[in-house]
Amino acid sequence: MEHFLISLLILLFFFLSLTLFILFHNHKSLFSYPNTPPGAIGLPILGESLEFLSSGWRGHPEKFIFDRLNKYKSDVFKTSIVGVPAAIFCGPICNKFLFSNENKLVTPWWPDSVNKIFPSTTQTSSKEEAKKLKKLLPQFLKPEALQRYIGIMDELAERHFNSFWKNREEVLVFPLAKR
């Protein structure tokens, strides 16, 4: 009886080790192409989701991005959030690339995990939403539209300066700028 339990335990250990090896090996090969950006995928299934969520819970979700920008010294890096490998694009050059190709090279999408949780909100195509937004955005950024907003922005800035900055010897800029 003891020999049977020991052999069963060894077999179970071998099977578990083999499963973990295959899981980790396949996980690392997701980004094994020669021109991939620097970065880490993190743990299988979880990826770097926990780090991303914890920085968000602390009130600084941008810290996740800035930490990786400093770590990899690149405006593009790879990561895995909500179990899906992704490339993160940051900086003006990357924004120009994303917004100038009109969804020819990069297409917006939702991960399967998000589609399962929120099926009704993801029914409309991301391409359709991008086209609608692209049509609306120039109307807000026309010089005539911006001229209408200048008076409102000036009034808000003046009120802000009068209430928080006027007659002070010392001014806390960072907390006020974060608003």
Automatic annotation (TrEMBL):
Its main location: membrane. Its cofactor is heme. It comes from Cucumis melo var. makuwa (Oriental melon). It is found in: Membrane. InterPro entries: Cyt_P450_sf (IPR036396). It comes from the Eukaryota. The keyword Ligase does not apply. The chain crosses the membrane at residues 6-24. GO terms for cellular component: membrane. The lineage of its organism: Eukaryota, Viridiplantae, Streptophyta, Embryophyta, Tracheophyta. Belongs to the cytochrome P450 family. Keywords: Heme, Iron, Membrane, Metal-binding, Monooxygenase, Oxidoreductase, Transmembrane, Transmembrane helix. The keyword Heme applies. SUPFAM superfamilies: Cytochrome P450. This is Beta-amyrin 28-oxidase.
